[in-house]
Structure formats: structure tokens, C-alpha cells
Amino acid sequence: NRMADASSDARNPRTRTRAIPAGLLSPSFTWAFVAASSAVFVLAAWRLNPLCFKLAPLALATILLYSYTKRFTTFSHLILGICLGIAPAAAWIGVRGRLDWPILVLTGAVTMWTAGFDIIYACQDFDFDRAERLYSLPSRIGIGPALWLARLLHGVMIALLVWLAVLLELGPLSLAGVALAAGLLTYEHSLVKAHDLSRVNAAFFTVNGFVSVLFFVFWAADVLYASRH
After folding, report:
1. Cβ distance 97 to 45 under 8 Å?
2. pLDDT tens readout for residues 88-130
3. DSSP-derived 3-state class of residue 22
4. Distances, alpha carbon 180 to alpha carbons 175, 206, 213, 224, in Å
5. What are the residues whose beta carbons fall under 8 Å from the beta carbon of 77, sequence distance 6 or more?
6. Statement: the pTM of the whole predicted model exceeds 0.90
7. Under 8 Å between Cβ of 31 and 3
8. CA distance 13 to 70
């Protein structure tokens, strides 16, 4: 992602201090690191099970090609969501060797969550993206409508998590975790206004960090409690 965006990052005042445009990392080192990481990923998938190995090229292509999508589609935020949504599905396949319906629901929830907060983050580059003719959603439909779409995506995420709790027959602790996540996301959206983006970083980094940690703690506690009773 950093290599794909290196030239535009160098022109963007917000991102010109990133490692590659600032000269802290060379393109040759970065590409070598990408190649080595990709090779280790494919090797690990091969060692896990046949389905992991078969799906590894698709996962790798999605992750590597995402970086170029905002040059031609406003769906880049959803594609980033899929990149992160692959993670729980990959872990499930790695352990079980198959895909099951519940993990697809979780993948959908992660996709909606990521796309929503990536839209919020992209609002910071509204002027730059328009000048560069990039296809971030805020630059195409405006910051206000984009923020409303982010709220909708996060609403879908919460609905999918409730559905997942029902599918897995989990107890009240998991639903409490979903309720807390919904509350935190509501707070996240209250921090960002179309006319005031000064707290985007707090919404994007801090609040989302709490969402993921609390979700894990409550759902893990629910599973552990159920396994002992």
C-alpha cells in the first residue's frame, strides 16, 4: 500500500512524512520485504491445509491489488474491508480446514466495520483526492453523505454481529459486547462532523482500538463460560 501510494503520499501534506516519501525506506527494500512476506504467507498456507493453500493466491491478490483500487472505483473502502475480513475467515480455515456459514457472517461484519471507519479516515483527504482525481467516497459524493454511509455500514455491522451470536448460540456476554461496540461506534460518529474533522484520528485510531479489544474480551469470556457450564 505504501509503495503504491508513494508518489501521491509525497504530494500530500498529511502523508509526505511517511517512511517511503521521506526517504526512510528505499523502494527496493520495500519491494523485497513485500516479496519475502508474500512467500512466507504462501508457505504457511501450504503447511496448514489444502484449502488454505488453494485460497492463498486469492487472498494475496486482494491484499496487494487493494492499494490501486482508489484510482478507479469508490468501492475501494469495501475492498479494504474485505482485506481485513479475510483475517477471521483465514484463521477459521487454518484451524478447521473448511468454510462455515458463521465465519462468513463475521467476515461480513469486519468488512462493514472497516469500510465504515476507512470512509471516516478518507474525509481528511477530501481536497487532495479531488485534486488528484482519486475515487475515495468523500471526494466523490461529499463528506456529509459519506459520513452517513459510514453510519449505515456500521449499523449493518452491528446487525451481523447480533446474527452471529444467534448462529453460534452464544449467551448474554456476547450480546453485551455487541451493545458496547454499538455504543463506541455511536461515540465515534459523534466525534466527526462534516464541518469539523479535527477529531478524526481519535475516532479512527482510539475508538476503533477499544471496539476490537472489547469485542474480543466479551466474546472470549462468553465462550469460556459456556465451555465450563
Report:
1. no
2. 999 999 999 999 999 999 999 999 999 999 999 999 999 999 9
3. coil
4. 9, 15, 11, 19
5. 114, 115, 118, 119, 122, 136, 137
6. yes
7. yes
8. 19
